[in-house]
Amino acid sequence: MYFGFNNFIKKVLPTGLFYRSLIIVAAPMIILQIITTIVFFDSIWIKANKGLTRSLVGELKTLSDIYTGKDIEQINYLTEQFKLNFDFVINIDDEKLPSIDKERKYSPMDRSLRRELKSVFGSSNYWFNTIKYEDVVEIKIKSNDNIIQILFPRERIAPSSVRLFIFWITLPSLLLISIAIIFLKNQTKPIINLAKAAEKFGKGDFFSGIRPSGASEIRKAAYEFDRMAKRIDRHLKQRSEMLSGISHDLRTPLTRLKLQLAMLNQKDLSVKMSKDIDEMESMLNSYLQFAKSQVQEESTATNINKLFNEIADEKNSKNFHLNLSVMVVLVGRKNALKRCFNNVIENGLNYAKNVYVHISKTTNKLNIFISDDGPGIPLDQYKNVFKPFYRLDQSRNLNYAGVGLGLSIAEDIVRSHGGNIELSESEHKGLQVKISLPL
Fold first, then answer.
1. Could you tell me if residue 380 is inside a domain?
2. What is the pLDDT of residue 399?
3. Do the Cβ atoms of 349 and 355 come closer than 8 Å?
4. Looking at residue 201, what is its pLDDT?
5. What's the confidence (pLDDT) of residue 249?
6. I need a labelling partner for 170 at 20 to 30 A (CA). Which of 12, 233, 269, 398 fits?
7. 8: which DSSP letter?
8. 167 lies in some domain
9. Total-model pTM
10. Which of left, alpha, beta for 167 (phi over 0: left; psi -120 to 50: alpha)?
11. Is 286 contained in some domain?
């Protein structure tokens, strides 16, 4: 039962730190104000209203008793005194008491007035209306054969301090909550900035550091994150530069070997060795491409439709089919995305007859489906093909004339954009690569 209630609370409460902190600050204040209002309303306002109403009904009872007498001069004199001293408007009416159309059961004023009038005059000898006039209450009382109409100010039975009390209890609460909102925003803003910086760095965007602000604990976390990000960035640059340098330096002796082989008289041996050198050059080109994928690039708004059209123009192949039914603009590193799509498409063109590209989008995600009608990949090899330098056998090798870095580079680029890449069987009985990228 406890865990069920705990789960219910988690679903009901907001997930954001700002709103949770606001509830922690505002909830006790609001509860305290509600309790104070209830106590005031019950112990002070209702009791004051009851005392005023009882006093008024006593005056009305006295006035009713006066009209039971027969001395007209005395009745008129006392009536004038009531009008003068109690601020009453008194009229004598020969009509019957009006019928009560609807009782306001939830009005404290009406309940108190009804209770006191009923205890003094009975159930059928009075009638009143508190809503007909804005500042005046009308009461009619049956006395012998006369109907006495009394009009008196509402403030006689309604304490005027209620509005003032509500005003002074509401205004400070709103003021304090407003101050709390301002302070909470200033406290949560550094955390939000740190989260955005972490997200940006995780996607591989250019990271220029963050300025620590806020509480001391948040400043320390931001400072340590900045140091960690710079160390990782420095490590990635060193690795990329080293791999790029080695690959570049090896090209020079390979070129010299090619020139020497061209001068050999043994052509059979020369051809075989040239093929080996060509393969080594292809491997070096793959290494360089892998190194380039690690280099940081500024994120820009990229039109995915135009990017695929550029790839199609470069391929210039009738076996490459595009289905770009929606227009999508994605913020990302254009060259890296193009390299990623090129690797997957090139794999398909190498080992399948046709390659099909289809894109779709949801409210926050772009889905790219690259399918082919080739031999595909066994299900148990889906994870292995993303490993660097991993190659399948020649009948199902996705990295033809390569070293097994094509899909590894593609996955690295997709992950750095905060996306996901998955393999499955296509509707054309080949391989389908699904690339999901956040918009």
1. yes
2. 44
3. yes
4. 74
5. 67
6. 12
7. H
8. no
9. 0.51
10. alpha
11. no
